[in-house]
Design a protein that fits this description.
The chain is mainly α and 544 residues long. Among the domains are: 148 residues, no CATH class; 137 residues, no CATH class. It is built from 22 helices and seven strands. The strands form two sheets. It has a five-stranded mixed β-sheet with strand order 4-3-5-7-6. Strands 1-2 form a two-stranded antiparallel sheet.
């Protein structure tokens, strides 16, 4: 059934209005923080600059290594801004503004595809979209050069295309669905779950042949990147794999081939996912209540997915494939949950609407039963309204307080001090080790490497980090100076252990006003002490 022109225009205008509001918030959310306070943001900018300068998709600040950890679509979208602007500051500012606009486009597309697929009514779509996107968590992922906003733009386009063809989807349609799904995965590798979702969706609606066409198209889109990643993995030094290796290398390094470690990671992630979802609805509650509310939201969203599966199978399946992936991955899931929340929220609202209608259904119902069902419906609606009102209030407070500014601006100030010292006191060929190494590389032009070797993310680590891999990293990457924030335990603990083991390897030469310690790395001493310890260990093992 084709919608009436006036009704279709209302949908488009509503989606456009939502997009404009959220884009305005996205632009307003930008701050003066240096690009690099989120680590990956500086990598995206550096990769884009390398392409713009003709060096290819390479991490030139690390000695011309391939950027195999970072899918290419988002960095490639930044290349024109390097070309069209006349300075680095102008280019980076334009990139941040572009991200603010992307989140607005994503919100508009989200509203449009929900109402186009008749998942929710227009008023509900407007409310869900505004609550889902006008939030501190969404501004957090769009106030820097992170790829999430562009990922959401392509995601909602792909879901709309996959589920909007009601009667049939010809070869051209299937090719376009597969291509869009491939683009989503080439923006963030978590988008591989979208590829699986659209294959399931097209197979359910149009049969195996259609699913095969969609799958083949997506695979062909991904194949060059997968080959680049596979071949480039051999160029990444072992000491840099935790930061710059492929995701497969990183995952294997994190779990060390242990099924128990993989299960422990999943358990930690599942708890964090439930608590994060609950905290978005009722942030003032404790962890147990938040996890309970998060579980209820998951249950309602699952019911909503069941209700819409026949009409929109790819949309119904995608959230659960995505949650399955982030529950086993070795990264804290918070940012990943933030960008899924609007869709989960919409599915939960679908379930609530369905339950409210069912609670009074049936022409021949005992009056007492009907009264109980009406009370149940009113109770459900009241509870839902209270939770949503609480969330809207808290998110509006988060917006007005610009909650994302605090940590970003503090880290930026610390980074600026390190950059200032490096620029004034080191030569162009110097190698600097710092936990925000891409930030130093971007603004100082020096070679910058990590100041720790961390195969297991500090969030999952139960034991102290080993010293020898860090010592090896500093030697092999020929680090001249090392900077560390002593008030950040995850950053300082490996350095403290290194100094305990090799007391002459680092010489403190400067402390910034913000308290960052800057050491001269004495690589010769580091090598000598390492050799001495090795020899001592061999003598002990050979003793009778």
């Amino acid at each position: 059934m084709t919608p009436e022109p006036g009704f279709r225009a209302g949908r488009v205008l509503t989606a456009l209005a939502i997009g404009i509001v959220i884009a305005s918030l996205g632009l307003w959310a930008q701050n003066t923080a240096l690009v690099g306070v989120n680590y990956d943001d500086a990598i995206y900018a550096l990769l884009a600059r390398a392409v713009a300068d003709g060096h290819g998709y390479r991490l030139t600040e690390l000695g011309d290594l391939p950027g195999i950890k970072y899918p290419p679509i988002y960095p490639m979208s930044l290349v024109p801004l390097w070309v069209l602007t006349d300075s680095q500051d102008a280019a980076l500012h334009a990139m941040k503004l572009a991200n603010g606009l992307y989140i607005g486009v994503a919100a508009g597309l989200f509203a449009f595809f929900l109402v186009e697929l008749s998942i929710l009514s227009l008023p509900l779509v407007a409310g869900v979209s505004m609550i889902g996107f006008a939030s501190g968590s969404m501004m957090l992922v769009s106030s820097g050069l992170l790829s999430e906003p562009l990922y959401l733009v392509l995601l909602y386009l792909a879901l709309w295309k996959a589920d909007s063809a009601r009667a049939r989807c010809g070869t051209v349609c299937l090719l376009s669905v597969g291509m869009l799904a491939g683009l989503v995965a080439l923006t963030r590798m978590a988008g591989i779950t979208l590829v699986a979702a659209v294959i399931i969706g097209t197979g359910y609606r149009y049969g195996r042949r259609s699913a095969a066409i969609t799958a083949a198209t997506s695979v062909l889109m991904l194949l060059p990147w997968l080959l680049f990643t596979f071949l480039g993995a051999r160029e990444i030094p072992d000491v840099l794999i935790p930061r710059y290796g492929s995701y497969i290398q990183l995952y294997l390094a994190s779990i060390s081939g242990s099924p128990v470690a993989a299960l422990e990671t999943m358990a930690v992630n599942l708890g964090a996912i439930l608590q994060t979802l609950g905290s978005m609805l009722i942030p003032q509650a404790g962890a147990l209540i938040q996890s309970t509310v998060g579980s209820a939201l998951i249950g309602l969203a699952a019911l909503g997915s069941w209700r819409i599966f026949s009409a929109a199978p790819a949309t119904a399946v995608y959230p659960w494939l995505y949650l399955s992936l982030i529950s086993v991955w070795t990264f804290p899931p918070f940012r990943f949950v933030f960008i899924l929340f609007p869709l989960l929220f919409a599915l939960a609202v679908v379930a609530c609407v369905s339950l409210a209608r069912l609670s009074v259904a049936g022409p021949e119902i005992d009056p007492a039963v009907l009264a109980r069902r009406r009370r149940l419906r009113l109770g459900m609606l009241a509870l839902g309204v209270l939770l949503i009102a609480n969330m809207a209030y808290r998110q509006s407070r988060a917006l007005s307080n610009r909650v994302w500014d605090g940590a970003q601006l503090r880290k930026s100030a610390v980074g600026a001090e390190v950059i200032g010292w490096v620029t004034a006191n080191t030569g162009p060929q110097s190698v600097i080790a710092f936990e925000l190494d891409p930030l130093v590389a971007l603004y100082s032009g020096r070679t910058a490497v990590p100041n720790n070797y961390e195969p297991i993310h500090s969030w999952y680590r139960s034991a102290a980090t080993e010293v020898e891999p860090l010592a090896r990293l500093l030697r092999e990457m020929e680090a001249d100076y090392l900077a560390v924030r002593p008030n950040v335990p995850a950053a300082a603990e490996p350095i403290d252990r290194l100094i305990d083991r090799y007391p002459e390897s680092l010489k403190l030469i400067h402390v910034t006003p913000g308290g960052v310690l800057i050491f001269e790395v004495r690589r010769a001493e580091l090598a000598r002490e390492a050799t001495a310890l090795k020899t001592q260990g061999e003598e002990i093992s050979d003793a009778p």
